[in-house]
């Protein structure tokens, strides 16, 4: 087993305007991944402006000072590249993967929308993308069974005012009142070079990338008063479980059990990651063995547990199961919580621990097997932990987690008083 | 601040080379491998001629049930012991099927590949298939399909497929079966399908660092105990086009969006127009910059996304467009989508559009083919469609060489806007009158 989870070179620099540039050269394939992490996400949104960071992400594809509407996509795809962007509570990222000879094009496009978005932003574009995002909300959250579970779990886990209280997609009401001036100000406030990390991975040399970064991004001004999001590191315990039951048009009862753990990147969250794998990844996991195979009360394809890798507050651990026909929600909920409770009382065996670590190792190397996968994690580590080289520590840290640490964390954080339980009931059985 | 106004041109091109392909015959089976020097992860995939096209009509979904039943214990160990053994290697058994093939694979650090292939072969060749387990897996699969069919999409897909290809044919029914056909399978259906199709050697695909891999030993493991030769796969199927357009309305009361599936039959995979057809499909609906997405999403704001493409298997193909649009704009979205398909059929594509489409498709070959998993997928394409080792290099050249006239001709020949079936899955009470008023075609209520 390697000592590091990142056996590739990493070189970094910082431009005078504060833009951090990370380069990891790998000439295996003639492709480069370009990835920008902006340290702004839905955790920065004040009440009444939920969904704005994500809607803003859409506006970044609609043209900038030297790039006409529709040209951004056209230029990247016309170069043979692929591109996308994502927004989550913590951050917004934009990424392209292009044949290596088009690196400069990708940097030019990213620089133009970092430094020149506001003059190109129009009411027409905002209105159009507002409708697109509302359709995204309908398609992903409203028109599918259990589609709103994440929207319901967050307020059960995080109190009003906490940066993770609301979901990134936002509310229809807030999206409807979004006005142009707010978005112009959003760009001016957060899309500054000193609030971003540019990562390039693949078939490119660091000195060349540093020079190109300076050429295209160097003239963009820094901003010295970027407001921070509310502090979400501590969530006061209420001493009471949070419980919600929803009757909806769903095909079977489903239960989610969620807990607040530790922020991503901390030793505590490394324990959570291994714990979640022991609990809920694969047919050898405790949840599968107990609920799908043993008691046979849960549907085999729909039982599992996972951590949500958020870094600016105690990240959620979620376990879920869906009832087999004839099984009540009550029985399923009891079964699910029993298995979670036993993490504190029934020690994790060496075989369970080895299984989890083997699965996590493969998952890690799979993520590292592409240049775009690597670029995203380097951007994350530079943005959230100040040093992309810390990426090499994650896998060894997972592999060092012990059964005792899992039992301790389960006893400390996974108790009934700290539990959020969300249950869906089909309409006909209500 | 001064941004640089001029768009930079490309640097010197660095051509993509598909990894070296190794083909061997070992122990009665075929091995096709790609060498990925230095890669720590490796993928091994057993490719069997046991796709959905091999399932008897009315036994739709038997392959999916068998896939799950493989992990319910083997001749050597029970289900729990099997799960713990394979997951201790850091992998899970990944199964998949399409019309042409059944695939089962493992992905592990290269030093564990041999142990993982042993477990793969154990499940595929010697599953226990205890009747009680098979019945339970069947019931779970029927429930899983019922859950899936509660989402928008699967019912619309099934309605479109049945209308295009005829529900009397296996290829006119859902690839994974539907909740009723799967619930109606019995134990013999599963065991017979196994003995008929899962004992033949098939092809072992390997993507990884071959200097750290003993291909002959892997193949000997994968093909041990296998027997039986290849079976005739059947030629292309002639699928007639409809004489006129029709709308099929699939009721989903309370839906806040209408799910759209538009389509008609198109040529099989080996058709000589494959490349120009792919490019015509790309301009029309295959990329974010395509005509459909530009108009329906970026100009109108009717949807989060709309896609269209030609897809083909060995024996048949179909052109299809899919989207989800808000209820109130169902009719105009449908009218405009049919309008773009018609415009493309009648007037072809522009050089500007084609330039983007061909560079994108060619560039994706170098950009996407990086991981062992994606390389294994590319090798699978070579095997299923009898393509040569230099297929990807040749494909790149033919994509880049396709001109406007060829692509326009493919659009004119292979798009049939007058024969489209337009499936709308949504709140029928809300959208029916407007659909009738479009005059796009007769509105038929889907019976199910």
Please explain how this structure is put together.
Chain B: InterPro entries: Metalloenz_LuxS/M16 (IPR011249), MPP/UQCRC_Complex (IPR050361), Pept_M16_N (IPR011765), Peptidase_M16_C (IPR007863). Chain B: It comes from Micromonospora coerulea. Chain B: It holds the Pfam family Peptidase_M16. Chain B: This is Pitrilysin family protein. Chain A is 42% helix and 17% strand. Chain A is α+β, with helices and mostly antiparallel strands and 430 residues long. Chain A folds into 2 domains: 207 residues, Metalloenzyme, LuxS/M16 peptidase-like (Cytochrome Bc1 Complex, Chain A, domain 1), CATH 3.30.830; 188 residues, Cytochrome Bc1 Complex, Chain A, domain 1, CATH 3.30.830. In chain A, the strands form 2 sheets. Chain A has a 6-stranded mixed sheet, sandwiched between helices. In chain A, helix 3 runs parallel beside helix 8, helix 9 packs across helix 12 and helix 11 crosses helix 15. Chain A is globular. The relative contact order of chain A is 0.17. In chain B, the strands form 2 sheets. A 6-stranded mixed sheet of chain B has the order 1-2-6-3-5-4, sandwiched between helices. In chain B, strand 4 and strand 5 form a beta hairpin. In chain B, helix 11 crosses helix 15 and helix 12 packs antiparallel against helix 14. Chain B is globular, with a radius of gyration of 24 Å. The model of chain B has no long low-confidence stretch (mean pLDDT 96). Chains A and B meet through helix 2, strand 5, helix 3, helix 4 and helix 10 of A and helix 2, strand 5, helix 4, helix 10 and strand 10 of B.
């Amino acid at each position: 087993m390697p000592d590091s989870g990142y056996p590739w070179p990493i070189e970094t620099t910082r431009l005078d305007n504060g833009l951090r540039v990370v380069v990891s050269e790998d000439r295996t394939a003639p492709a480069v991944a370009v990835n920008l992490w902006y340290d702004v996400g839905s955790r920065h949104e004040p009440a009444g402006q939920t969904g704005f960071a994500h809607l803003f992400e859409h506006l970044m594809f609609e043209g900038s000072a030297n790039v006409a509407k529709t040209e951004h996509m056209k230029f990247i795809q016309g170069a043979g590249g692929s591109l996308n962007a994502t927004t989550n509570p913590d951050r917004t990222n934009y990424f392209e993967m292009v044949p290596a000879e088009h690196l400069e094009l990708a940097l030019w496009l990213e620089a133009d929308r970092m430094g020149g978005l506001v003059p190109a932003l129009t009411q027409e574009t905002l209105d159009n993308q507002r409708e697109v995002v509302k359709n995204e909300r309908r398609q992903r959250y409203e028109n599918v069974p259990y589609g709103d579970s994440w929207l319901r779990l967050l307020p059960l886990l995080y109190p009003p005012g906490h940066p993770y209280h609301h979901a990134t997609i936002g509310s229809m009401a807030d999206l409807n009142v979004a006005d142009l001036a707010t978005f112009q100000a959003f760009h001016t406030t957060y899309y500054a070079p000193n609030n971003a990390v540019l990562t390039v991975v693949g078939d490119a040399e660091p000195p060349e990338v540093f020079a190109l970064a300076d050429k295209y991004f160097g003239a963009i001004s820094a901003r010295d008063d970027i407001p921070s999001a509310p502090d979400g590191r501590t969530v006061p315990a209420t001493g009471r479980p949070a419980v919600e039951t929803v009757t909806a048009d769903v095909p079977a009862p489903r239960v989610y059990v969620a807990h607040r753990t530790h922020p991503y990147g901390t030793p505590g969250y490394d324990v959570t990651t291994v714990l979640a794998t022991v609990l809920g990844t694969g047919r050898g996991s405790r949840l599968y063995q107990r609920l799908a195979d043993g008691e046979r009360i849960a549907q085999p394809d729909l039982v599992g547990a996972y951590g949500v890798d958020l870094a600016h507050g105690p990240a959620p651990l979620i376990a879920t199961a869906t009832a087999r026909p004839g099984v009540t929600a009550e029985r399923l909920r009891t079964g699910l919580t029993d298995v979670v409770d036993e993490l504190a009382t029934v020690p994790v065996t060496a075989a369970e621990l080895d299984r989890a670590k083997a699965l996590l190792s493969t998952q890690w190397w799979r993520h590292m097997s592409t240049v775009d996968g690597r670029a995203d994690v380097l951007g994350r580590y530079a943005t959230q932990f100040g040093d992309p080289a810390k990426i090499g520590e994650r896998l060894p840290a997972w592999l060092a987690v012990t059964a005792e640490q899992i039992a301790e964390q389960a006893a400390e954080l996974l108790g009934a008083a700290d539990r959020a339980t969300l249950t869906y009931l089909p309409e006909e059985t209500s | 601040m001064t941004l640089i106004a001029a768009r930079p041109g490309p640097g010197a091109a660095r051509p993509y080379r598909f990894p070296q392909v190794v083909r061997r015959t070992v122990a009665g089976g075929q091995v096709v491998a790609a060498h990925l020097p230095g890669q720590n992860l490796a993928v091994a995939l057993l490719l069997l001629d046991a796709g959905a096209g091999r399932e008897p009509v009315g036994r739709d979904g038997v392959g999916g049930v068998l896939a799950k039943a493989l992990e319910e214990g083997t001749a050597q160990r029970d289900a729990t012991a099997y799960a713990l053994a394979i997951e201790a290697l850091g992998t899970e058994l990944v199964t998949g099927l399409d019309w042409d093939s059944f695939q089962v694979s493992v992905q592990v650090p290269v030093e564990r590949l041999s142990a993982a292939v042993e477990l793969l072969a154990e499940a595929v060749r010697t599953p226990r298939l205890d009747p009680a387990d098979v019945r339970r897996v069947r019931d779970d699969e029927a429930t899983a399909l019922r859950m899936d069919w509660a989402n928008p999409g699967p019912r619309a897909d099934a309605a479109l497929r049945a209308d295009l290809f005829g529900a009397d044919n296996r290829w006119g029914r859902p690839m994974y079966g539907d909740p009723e056909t799967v619930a109606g399978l019995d134990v013999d259906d599963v065991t017979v399908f196994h003995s008929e199709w899962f004992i033949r050697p098939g092809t072992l695909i390997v993507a990884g660092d071959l200097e750290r891999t003993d291909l002959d030993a892997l193949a000997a493991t994968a093909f041990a105990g296998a027997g039986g030769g290849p079976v005739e796969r059947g030629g292309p199927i002639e699928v007639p086009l409809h004489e006129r357009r029709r709308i099929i309305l699939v009721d989903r009361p309370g839906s806040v969006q209408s799910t759209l599936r538009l389509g008609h039959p198109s040529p099989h995979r080996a058709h000589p127009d494959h490349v120009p057809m792919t490019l015509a499909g790309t301009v029309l609906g295959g990329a974010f910059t395509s005509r459909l997405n530009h108009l329906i999403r970026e100009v109108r704001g009717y949807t989060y996304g709309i896609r269209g493409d030609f897809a083909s298997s060995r024996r048949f193909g179909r052109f299809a467009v899919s989207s989800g649009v808000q209820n109130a704009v169902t009719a105009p979205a449908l009218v405009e989508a049919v309008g773009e398909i018609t415009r493309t059929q009648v007037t072809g594509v522009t050089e500007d559009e084609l330039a983007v489409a061909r560079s994108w498709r060619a560039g994706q070959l170098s950009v996407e083919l990086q991981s062992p998993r994606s390389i294994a997928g590319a090798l699978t394409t070579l095997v299923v469609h009898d393509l040569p080792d230099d297929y990807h290099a040749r494909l790149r050249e033919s994509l880049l060489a396709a001109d406007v006239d060829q692509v326009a001709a493919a659009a004119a020949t292979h798009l049939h806007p007058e024969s489209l079936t337009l499936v709308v899955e949504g709140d029928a009470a809300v959208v029916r009158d407007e659909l009738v008023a479009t005059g796009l075609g007769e509105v038929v209520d889907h019976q199910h």
